[in-house]
Every structure is written in C-alpha cells, then in structure tokens.
Amino acid sequence: QVQLQESGPGLEKPSGTLSLTCAVSGDSISSSNWWNWVRQPPGKGLEWIGEISHSGSTNYNPSLKSRVTISVDKSKNQFSLKVSSLTAADTAVYYCARVSGYSGYYGMDVWGQGTTVTVSS
Amino acid sequence: DIQMTQSPSSLSASVGDRVTITCRASQSFSSYLNWYQQKPGKAPKLLIYAASNLQSGVPSRFSGSGSGTDFTLTISSLQPEDFATYYCQQSYSIPWTFGQGTKVEIK
Questions:
Q1: Whether A70 contacts A81, CB under 8 Å
Q2: CA gap B20, B74 in Å, rounded
Q3: What is the average per-residue pLDDT within A94-113?
Q4: Which residues 86-105 of B have a C-beta within 8 angstroms of A?
Q5: Which of A53, A102, A108 is the mutation pick for testing B, counting most B CBs within 10 A?
Q6: Where are the strands (E) in chain A, listed by range?
Q7: CA dihedral defined by A110, A116, A117, A120, rounded to 10 degrees?
Q8: Chain A residues with CB inside 8 Å of B89's CB?
Q9: How many angstroms away from the CA of B17 is the closest CA of chain A?
C-alpha cells in the first residue's frame, strides 16, 4: 500500500521560507510516477503548486514559479517543497500527491493527509 | 491556463437521489479530466480518471462522461457517505487546474 506523509513546521513568518518534506512508502521515488504538491487555503479550493519526476525534471505553476522549488532525495525516498517570500496568502493545507499514468492519462491517485502551514508574525 | 468551471457550486439532495455535477473547460482537451471527492479535514480522493474511468475501489454508483469542454459526474443513488465536496481537474496541460468545487449537502 502506497502512503505519503508530509512533515514540516506549522508556523512560518512573513517573508520567510516554507520547507516541507513528503516521505514515500510502498513505492519508489525512482518509479515512472510524478510527485506533486497541491495546497488548499482555509475554506477554499485546490491549487496545484508543482511536480517533480524521478529524474529531477520539474513543472511549476506559473503563478508561484518564482518562489517555489521542488526537489527529490532518492536516498531517503522523499521529495520536498520550498516556498519563499511568504505572505499570509500562503496559509493553507499543503498536500503531497502521486500522479500515475493510465494509458496516457494522468491522475493524482495517492495523497498525503496534508499539513497545515500558517504564515503569521 | 485552462480555466475549469463547475456547476452548481453547491446542492442539497436526499439519500437515494440521482446527482449530476457539471464541469466546463475554457478550452477543448478530449478526455483529460479527473474527478475527486473531498470530505472535511481529509485529502481529496481520485474517483474518475480520463473522464469516464472508475478508479479502483470506487463504487459503481459513480460515473463520469464527456469530452472536449463539457464533462459530467453522476452519482446514481446518493449514499450518506457521498456527502462531500467534488472537484474536477484537467490533466491536459500544465499548470494542472481544478474547478472551484461542488459541495453536496444533505437536504
């Protein structure tokens, strides 16, 4: 059974940098899947942040691209998210998710339970 | 970016009702459309991929249809555990984008 587990500080200061890690179990980070980050502000909908492949190729949401870095650590079977220049608008539940392919179609089939990040002084 | 618009934003229904949620895309992309269910305090769950394919383990009362710009999620007979928020998501082009969600509430 594939499981994803987010970890990281729950409180960050404005202008600071958020760092989260997603530990993968039951699957290899080196598989053909893509590894994603999605966030959800309180009471709002889902926003895709970005993704990384096993080889380190990345795709980012243009709305966040200048502030976001996603990396992979194969030795620990995990991937990470950094978001810089934080503001209150970055307060959200952050999810990691696996994207799997189905004959050329892709879906986020496994999700972490989510971690809440609050940006406040 | 491809904009995804769901309707309605919320609905009230009774157990046993047939429920239909619509998702419209700002540009055409064949069947690159997924549906997710999210319950309060929980992560989203993939229900339907490629517009009409049921994810493993999802009850058969859920079905999806559509292609191009107009897609539909149907719950044939609403069950108590189906009260949740549903999101569509396009997987055609980066950035992946979601609809704003449809909240299904108990009447």
A1: yes
A2: 5
A3: 94
A4: 87, 89, 91, 94-101
A5: A108
A6: 3-7, 11-12, 18-25, 34-40, 47-53, 58-60, 68-73, 78-83, 92-102, 105-111, 115-119
A7: 160
A8: 46, 108
A9: 25
Please say whether the beta carbons of B52 and B88 come within 8 A. Answer: no
Mean pLDDT of B59-63: 98
pLDDT tens string A60-89: 999 999 999 999 999 999 999 999 999 999
Residue A37, pLDDT score: 98
**Nearest-CA neighbor of A21 among A34, A37, A32, A33?**
A37
